[in-house]
Amino acid sequence: MADTKQSSYAKVGTWMVAAALTTGICTAAELTSTPITVRAGNTVFNATLNNNATARDFIAALPITLTMTRWGDREYYGKPGLKLSDQSPKRNDFDNGDIAWWPSGGSFAIFFNNKVNPDISDLIVIGKISSDLKLFDTLGEVVEMRIELAH
User: Fold this and answer.
1) Using DSSP, how many helices (H) and how many strands (E) does the chain show?
2) In this structure, which CATH number among 2.40.100.20, 2.60.40.10, 3.40.50.800, 3.30.70.790 belongs to the domain 33-149?
3) Which of 18, 29, 102, 130 has the most Cβ atoms closer than 10 angstroms to its Cβ?
4) Under the phi-then-psi rule, with left for phi > 0, alpha for psi from -120 to 50, and beta for the rest, what region is 110?
């Protein structure tokens, strides 16, 4: 009986997802990502976090305020003191706008300029900034960033 009940729930869940997508209630990306805001002073960035183990661990810690330091004109990074999963896929580079976790250094990073040394090892991308990345040029060397679920 439990297998039949679980199978019925799975079918209903699949139907609900299909209905949401076909009626325009939401997009496929919205089903697999979590909208957040990143605030640095009066500057607000819109972003989404992915649906992977590392991102889910980070979401569980929100809201959080981090001291973020500009590094190499390519990123802001901070050390949140969190233990996040390192079981998500790792990369050895980044794209502009990537929000990432670097397990080797226990660092959270937001990348905005991959023209300056795009190489990095074992980076876990957990999300993406959707706002204009040029806004990062207006921020100082060290900033407090408040990261929270979008309202």
Assistant:
1) 3, 9
2) 2.40.100.20
3) 102
4) beta
Gap between the Cα atoms of 13 and 6, Å rounded: 10
Q: 107: which 2 tokens?
A: 């660092």
Q: pTM of whole model > 0.70?
A: yes
Q: Which two tokens stand for residue 115?
A: 């023209």
**pLDDT tens for each residue of 72-127:** 899 999 999 999 999 999 999 999 999 999 999 999 999 999 887 777 899 999 99
Residue spans per domain, the chain: 1-31, 33-149
Count other C-beta atoms under 10 Å from residue 33's C-beta. Answer: 17
CA 131, CA 93: separation in Å to the nearest integer?
Answer: 21
- Please report, for residues 19, 35, 62, 65, 91, the alpha-carbon distance to residue 148 in angstroms, rounded to integers and kept in the order given: 29, 9, 5, 9, 25
Tokens for 36?
A: 């957040």
38 membership: H or E segment, kind and range: strand 34-40
